[in-house]
Specification:
heterotetramer; A: alpha/beta; Rossmann fold; 10 helices; 32% helix; 16% strand; globular; B: alpha/beta; Pyruvate-ferredoxin Oxidoreductase, domain 3; eight-stranded mixed beta sheet; seven-stranded mixed beta sheet; 39% helix; binds thiamine diphosphate; binds iron/sulfur cluster; binds magnesium ion
Chain lengths: 284, 564, 564, 284
């Protein structure tokens, strides 16, 4: 039996007191414990940012990669050993800025990972520059005259690119978030959760109070309905819906590689005496 | 006939390369040594393509500047190349071309007629092959064998039509001009990139992440062909950033992992290269250089990236840079690259170039009794009982035990940050120094003989041709020519640049009364600079070429005999 | 009191840096020389932050290892730094801290009380400032001036509250411990990154494309502040690939264009750097080095990227690598970088590091009568009559006339491929050689005196401290100390690495009976390697540091006096 | 008066006879001539690929950039001198593969350029590897056992990212394509045209004949209707619609920079004596 304590941090946590990231990593720990996944079979992969520190705060295998490349690293991990449960944690800058290409392409591939985007609407670790999700005309350290860009719509892009599990969570609701994480972990295919994450130091405006007023929970929504999911994602109301927007079981790139891993995952194949005589034959 | 060189010219898309390969295959069947060298612009159609096939009863190492036979698949070929012809000079062309030139020295052949009879100009070059086989004095049944070998996988119809084209044109010629003697040799005929692919497959590569880029693209195609039978995850990625980052992920799980690219793609890999260094993940990167800078001359050769791969990525971390000198070495060294990568838990860069990637050579059949060595990799049964595991433990030789996800008792975080022994981020001065020292000393575990320069030629020679990577081939060929002219010379070839073989270099380069000449395919004499930086030895003679064409044995001989 | 050093320590987020700045500003108002040096981990909250303010009546160049006053914003600060204290050692802390330590040597202040009275702990550090002003013997009205200067833009309420906090605590202290004398000097107090921003703005930068990365991020913030008033297009991009590619586009239109980053971002710029070289587009890249490899130690200093920036990108093309030695040089050299970029129509890399980027110094007021030189840029009126324009014309000095979109008669394509004089792709051997030679000779137009090393110290000294970039600062400080100890020494500072000043180096380094010592912030002694590669001169003495902390004048002096 | 001949190639054209790219560059020439744009004020920017050679084949200013970065280079050009007409030509690999991030981000910014993607469903110049638009399970030189990835949907992504002019053209219909190019050139904001481009050498399967059967022209579609446009883009029928899917006039990032270029574009500002005394003042 896996207990929450088995998943305690590798190290003391260095996030600011009150940071939304605590809620996220706790939800991850709870979900893994409740699903009874063996921590040694879980790999948490991150980029760089406050969010990037997540792997250190949950005792599983982890990879704190470079900024923007967590999803690409995760692809190599999951394709080489599909038995591992791979969880990607990115920041909003990390994923919707510098790392966007890998995100889109792997949703298209329907790579079988859980991806949690810590969306605090700011570049926190580098001290408050505008992120791709920062509101229009917001003043930040890099945009003293206002952010000239309209924010991007993560859920709409996820749906358009082909993710097969698309959800929005909120770091302030541990119970709800834990359920999303569990559902994402159990999903075969790209499970993407954009998590609204209060950053108390670098973007206090979007606080817990703010989110309490500006979110609501999806009810009576049929997550198999993609058109409706897209409509929901495009909604420009005052409140953001939380919950599972879309979910489907379709082709995943892993189907193509299934035979390779049939007996053992590729990463565990015996390579001490690969026979290449048939290939050499071709050149004779 | 001891040695024969055939140049084939024609427009891109006319099958020049494939004709070269057919002729090469024929010589291989006869036990001859073969070198096939291609030249073509970065265009799909149009532009002038060349395939140059050189065959010999004696060992040969490189292409030469002359040809005995010119096969002109179009008119311009004759003008462009007629001055390269050497006795017995023979020009072979379709009757259409021959007629239009009104040149009775041209051997006129009904190639297009035969192709058209078979319903497609696609058979034009196979027809040319049949004719060449006859001209060379090969037996009919061998023509058939070559066609079967090369087209077998494309289905019976393709084989039959090609066979028909070849035989018809074979028969259209009355007599052979040469007599192709059979030798007892049994060779492989294989190109540099395929040798890389084989070396990697033999080494147990389990994940290839690659984005296509000339001249490395065919490594992807070749390994992909065997993805199912050899159970390799082959992933064409969205870009080179994904390629290298995904192989780092793959290697982290324990899969032997590789990527291949050219300089432009390698540029995009610079950042993650440093991550592999910092997180101590063993990966193999094939970098096949081409004409540069920037997009440059994509289908031409160069050795302009040496310094770049030596220093790519911010900061300092251990890496190995090796550069095979010919097709055979490409196989063995790529195999070795995987062992070394795991031995030192660091990135290994295999520096190729367009010349080596695409040159096809006869080589002794590759040995397959090679030993895989995974270094300090934790075994599953060891993991069961391990206590207090530390991924980045500071050890005597700097190398720590490497545990893999799913092994019990070893959970840790691999990190691109500076970290302590457990993997946790640190900015502490002493921890930092310990980890830097630990990493930087790792290369010392590589046995010295592995990266020592190789010396070819007479012991008592006082001319030393110093080269690295693919220029070994023309240098060795030049050595042969010089010997014929009674000039004693040596080739000093560096298959490794990093680690740098300091002791041997001092010994070899400071011999009294030697004339050292550095031969490289670049403008700045980068390797000369490396030698000087490492040893203080300044070699004032250089033979440099940077026009995208491989230096020829003739150029080397000329330089040696006359100076610059 | 001639020279005083104050160390402030506290947790991240407690305003350590801003307190340092207030104190520095006070000294500046009194005409003192100031150096402010910060140290902090890569965390938003938690972790130990330091600001170190050194002020003197005489010119000072760098921070030192000691402090006279320790301002402890938290308890651990006292333990960590007490050994650095030097007479008259004074420890200043909030009464809460002082009480808990039961240490009567601590000057106990009601900082948190004052802050709480004003309604927010935000005023804690301003209160500390008021106290420090009194301790130092500054006048009340100067406290007010500093607060106005630093908080003026944040509105009246902020100013009033801060003023109240400062004055209250000023008054809470009975007597001053020092007497702050006024000097007649008028300085700017400015940090390295701000000097870069000013140099760029003065040079007429019209497009900044940047992605945030420590320690270069504040260049973006600072220039953005002036985007409207100075009419500069400031674009935070999606990544560093977009940053550099967009500045190349901007420069192609004629806008002076720049990006700024650290090593990781520069890695991502490697590919496009070569495009700028090939297409001959003038751009300026600021690269501020930090602890590496990979993500490394983001908030610490290092000079580990020298070789990387010298060789980044596949192949060979001209580039300039300069490395200012202090804040003042950063301003003038960045200005110069834009002129040189247009002069040689190539990329110019300005190598900074965290130490230089974030160190704040008093400097003479920047001169603004600097001359913009746009090199061979075609003027609109010239374009009207031009005929047969060729963008890449082969000229005597390799530099061709540069026309801009919207100019008539000059339409052409800038290309990342090798090209002929018009810009069209070529793979012709001779064209290639011509264009390579043309490009590679361009740097020769840079006047030699611009990139010559600078020599500081006594003419007859036989100890030569050889350094580049920011280590100039501790080296010059060490020179002062050595002089006090009657040791004659010189500092040989290289503000440019490429082009390399060959003649001067030979002359300086081969003087008889000199002791040369290379001082760098890296593991491999990269600059020593460059010197050896370029000149053959091997300098066996090195003083290297790579723990992320800037080498101190004391360490240099120690080394010089005792050897390693 | 601008004539077609004024826009003749800089150099003889090196594309394969029959290549769809001829149609595209001809449509560009016709559109520029018909709109009477001054060629010296037009900049054609490309990446690397067969498509990348476009700038050489139309006499305007041009920039043949590196693979995948055309849009980023174009951004620098257009933001520095908004008076220039900037046309980007990319391949499908170039744009939907390596260059995807710049494409998405600049559609979000609604950068004012015309972007023509030469979609031949293959990496042509590098000899026939799978592209992000290559059909599922297709055998290519890099996927001898079939392409394991589902192709991405360029129009759906363009609509989700925020492009304000989204169209599909066909290289085989010069007249129709010319009209699209004209409309795109006149549009202020990101005008994106995915052009179906037959590649006769590397992917002959999707030939002119093929497209004749598998396309139809949009009729009675209201391009101001984004929901409908998204529906159209998601259609998985046997035939692809050609024409303008969506068009809107909204905020563009250029609005933010307008004051900078008010008198003269920034690239033409006089920089010989910039006054920085006010800034210096701040440090005194
Ligand atoms: C290539 C590269 N560019 C820039 C950086 C600097 N950097 C570190 S984290 C970060 C962004 C942080 O924002 P986000 O991804 O939203 O994460 P958060 O800190 O908000 O969790 C940046 C720009 C880097 N580490 N690497
Ligand atoms: C960084 C980099 N990686 C790879 C390449 C090699 N390359 C050149 S063109 C190309 C793809 C061509 O496909 P596409 O973009 O669809 O253009 P097309 O040739 O089909 O028009 C590739 C991979 C390159 N030039 N640069
Ligand atoms: S800066 Fe923001 S995101 Fe980072 S740890 Fe603090 S609260 Fe969390
Ligand atoms: S290969 Fe295809 S895309 Fe390239 S020029 Fe030929 S037909 Fe056109
Ligand atoms: Mg963020
Ligand atoms: Mg294509």
């Amino acid at each position: 039996m896996v207990k929450m304590e088995d998943l305690d941090p590798h190290h003391w946590i260095q996030w600011c007191p009150g940071c939304g990231n605590f809620g996220i990593v706790t939800a991850m720990r709870k979900a893994i414990a409740e699903l009874e996944l063996d921590p040694k079979d879980v790999v948490v992969v991150s980029g760089i940012g406050c969010s990037g520190k997540t792997p250190h705060y949950i005792k599983t295998y982890g990879f704190e990669a470079i900024h923007g490349r967590a999803v690409a690293v995760a692809m190599g991990i999951k394709l080489s050993n599909p038995q591992l449960h791979v969880i990607v944690n990115t920041g909003d800058g990390d994923n919707y800025g510098i790392g966007l290409n890998h995100w889109i392409q792997n949703m298209r591939r329907n790579l079988d990972i859980l991806h949690i985007a810590h969306n605090n609407h700011i570049y926190a670790l580098t001290k408050g520059q505008a992120a791709p999700t920062t509101p229009f005309m917001e003043k930040t350290s890099s945009t003293p005259h206002g952010n000239p860009e309209k924010p991007l719509n993560p859920l709409l892009l996820a749906l358009s690119a082909g993710a097969t599990f698309v959800a929005r969570g909120y770091a302030g609701d541990l119970q709800h978030l834990t359920e999303l994480v569990k559902e994402g972990l159990m999903h075969r295919g790209y499970a993407f959760i954009d998590v609204l994450q209060p950053c108390v130091s670098m973007y206090p405006k979007m606080s817990y109070d703010y989110y309490k007023e500006h979110t609501y929970y999806l009810k009576d929504h049929d997550p198999s309905n993609k058109e409706k999911a897209i409509e929901l994602a495009m909604e420009e109301g005052d409140k953001l819906p939380l919950g599972v927007f879309y979910k489907a079981q379709t082709y995943s790139i892993h189907d193509f590689y299934e035979d390779i891993h049939q007996d053992l995952p590729a990463s565990k194949h015996d390579i001490y005496d690969i026979d290449i005589s048939d290939i050499i034959e071709e050149y004779l | 006939m001891e040695d024969i060189a055939i140049k084939i010219g024609g427009p891109a898309g006319s099958g020049v390369m494939s004709l070269g390969k057919m002729i090469g295959k024929l010589f291989q069947m006869y036990g001859w040594y073969v070198v096939i060298y291609d030249e073509h612009p970065s265009l799909i159609t149009g532009g002038h393509n060349i395939s140059y096939v050189r065959a010999s009863k004696q060992k040969i190492y490189a292409h030469r500047t002359y040809a005995h036979i010119l096969v002109a698949l179009d008119k311009p070929t004759i003008d462009i190349h007629k001055n390269e012809l050497k006795k017995p000079a023979l020009v072979v062309a379709d009757e259409g071309i021959a007629a239009s030139l009104d040149n009775s020295d041209i051997l006129s052949l009904p190639l297009s007629r035969i192709a058209n009879e078979l319903g497609s100009l696609r058979y034009y070059n196979t027809a040319a092959f049949g004719a060449m086989a006859k001209i060379l004095g090969a037996r009919k049944e061998d023509v058939t064998s070559v066609i079967k070998k090369l087209f077998g996988k494309k289905g019976d119809e393709v084989v039959q039509n090609n066979e028909a084209a070849a035989l018809k044109s074979y028969e259209s010629i009355e007599h052979s001009y040469f007599k192709l003697e059979k030798k007892a040799n049994k060779f492989m005929l294989i190109g540099g990139n395929d040798a890389v692919a084989l070396g990697a497959i033999k080494a147990g590569v389990k994940y290839l992440g690659q984005y296509p880029m000339t001249p490395a693209s065919s490594i992807l195609s070749t390994i992909a062909k065997h993805e199912k039978s050899k159970k390799i995850v082959v992933k064409q990625t969205e870009d080179e950033l994904a390629a290298i980052n995904s192989i780092i992920g793959a290697a982290f799980t324990g899969a032997r992992a590789m990527t291949a690219t050219s300089g432009g793609g390698f540029s995009l890999m610079a950042e993650a290269l440093g991550m592999a260094g910092m997180a101590e993940v063993p990966i193999v990167i094939i970098e096949s250089q081409r004409g540069s800078p920037s997009t440059g001359m994509p289908t031409h050769t160069e050795q302009g990236d040496l310094r770049f791969v030596m220093h790519a990525s911010q900061g300092e971390f251990p890496r190995v840079v090796m550069a095979p000198g010919d097709v055979e070495e490409a196989y063995y060294m790529v195999f070795e690259a995987f062992n070394i990568a795991e031995l030192v838990q660091s990135p290994v860069i295999v520096l190729m170039d367009k010349y080596l990637s695409s040159t096809i050579q006869t080589t002794p059949i590759f040995k397959t009794d090679l030993k895989v060595d995974r270094g300090k990799l934790l075994k599953d049964d060891q993991a069961q009982n391990i206590k207090g595991y530390k991924r980045y433990e500071v050890t005597e030789d700097g190398i720590s035990l490497r545990a893999l996800p799913s092994q019990p008792n070893c959970m840790h975080v691999a990190s691109s940050y500076e970290h302590d022994e457990t993997g946790f981020t640190t900015e502490d001065s002493e921890e930092r120094i310990r980890q830097m020292k630990k990493r930087m000393k790792k290369l010392a575990v590589i046995p010295k003989h592995i990266y020592a320069p190789r010396v070819y030629g007479s012991d008592d020679a006082n001319i030393q041709l110093i080269c690295w990577g693919s220029t070994k081939m023309p240098c060795l060929e030049a050595l042969k020519i010089l010997k014929e002219e009674d000039v004693k010379a040596k080739v000093i070839h560096y298959p490794y640049i990093v680690p740098f073989p300091y002791d041997e270099t001092i010994e070899i380069l400071t011999k009294p009364n030697v004339r050292n000449i550095v031969i490289e395919q670049n403008y700045l004499a980068q390797f000369r600079g490396v030698i000087r930086e490492q040893t203080g030895i300044y070699i004032d003679e250089t033979l440099l070429k940077y026009d995208g064409r491989e230096i020829t044995p003739e150029e080397i001989v000329d330089y040696v005999l006359k100076g610059d």
